[in-house]
Every structure is written in structure tokens, then in C-alpha cells.
Amino acid sequence: MIKIVAKNKIKNGMVNNFKKTAEELIIKSNKEKGCISYDLYVDINDSSVLTFLESWDDEEAIFNHNNSDHFKEIVPKLGEFVEEKEVRKYILLK
């Protein structure tokens, strides 16, 4: 399993726009083959920081997700609301 943490610092006044735009991405991503979970969280101490926490079966599932029509359509729209972004992938330390 691979975890992705995609942290987004949202521009002032754009949090609701980001959340509304992300809804479709979340719904469609959770239906993808290889997706274990795909959710959006808000930072407890800073409501302008929204983070996608994703769990995927493997790199192939992530590749397919990143090349899906909904990803290619929605992610650029989300980028319009983002001031800073950081994406990291994790695997379980054994």
C-alpha cells in the first residue's frame, strides 16, 4: 500500500471554492480500481490548509489515477485556488 499526502495552502477567501471543486475528484477517485481511500482534511490549527490523504494499492493504481480524465480536468482547476502545494508518497516502514 502507498499513502499520498497532498498538502495545499489555499489562497485567502478561496477555501470554499477549493472544497466544492474537490468534491467530484474525491467521489470519482474513491471509485477507482486500486483506491483504498481518498479524502480531504482541514488542518486543525489553520483552516486555509487542506490536505488530501490517499491510500492506493500500488504505483499502477496511482499512475492510472493521475492519468484519469477527472484528475486531468479537476486538478488544474484546484491549482487556481492554491498558494503553496506539497505532495509526498509514503510506504510502510517494515
CATH class: Alpha Beta
From the 3D structure, determine the CATH topology.
Alpha-Beta Plaits
> Structural class, please?
alpha+beta
Poorly predicted segments: none
Please count the beta strands (DSSP E, at least 2 residues each): 4
Taken together, the total number of domains comes to: 1
Total helical elements: 3
Q: Averaged pLDDT, please?
A: 97
Q: How do the SSEs run, as a string of H and E? A: EHEEHHE
Strands ordered across the widest β-sheet: 2-3-1-4
CATH architecture: 2-Layer Sandwich
Oligomer: single chain
The proportion of residues in beta strands is: 35-45%
Q: Kindly provide the radius of gyration, computed on alpha-carbon positions and rounded to a whole number of angstroms.
A: 13 Å
Give the termini separation.
12 Å
Q: Can you tag this structure with a few keywords?
A:
94 residues, alpha+beta, Alpha-Beta Plaits, four-stranded antiparallel β-sheet, 3 helices, 37% helix, 37% strand
How is this fold's topology laid out?
Layout: E1 2-10, H1 15-30, E2 35-42, E3 49-56, H2 59-66, H3 69-79, E4 82-91
Helix pairs in contact: 1-3
